[in-house]
Design a protein that fits this description.
Structural class: alpha/beta
Number of strands: 8
Strand order of the largest sheet: 3-2-1-4-5-6
Helix content: 25-40%
Order of helices and strands: EEEHEHEHHEEE
Number of helices: 4
Strand content: 25-35%
Radius of gyration: 14 Å
Distance between the termini: 28 Å
Length: 134
Amino acid sequence: MTVGVDTHKDVHVAAVLDQAGRVLATRGFPTTMRGYAQLATWAESFGTVDKVGLEGSGSYGAGLLRFLTDYGLAVVEVDRPDRSTRRRIGKTDTIDAESAARAVISGRASGARLLTSRLCCHSRGHGFEFHRVS
């Protein structure tokens, strides 16, 4: 199974696709530790998770990235779909989650950008900024 996740401030939307690219299910999860655990166990309820395509891994998805990699799942960074694709197929969180999974399946989001939980966090203004540590 391949999972795609569209990340946001309050809710992450996930889509599970089988090896043939068929959507098995989509669902939203709160951006809390409990929500992260629910997302991981929900995804695994469909079978073995090969990879997770994560859109927004450096911002709203940073906490989910840490959780999933610590949980033992392989996470790949996925770029947002370009504007022409968004105009052609539309823009919803579910579509973006499916697109993230499809990018992993097709190889557009390759293991070259495989992410780990090695993030450094520091305060910036009223929030926090995350940077990957090599």
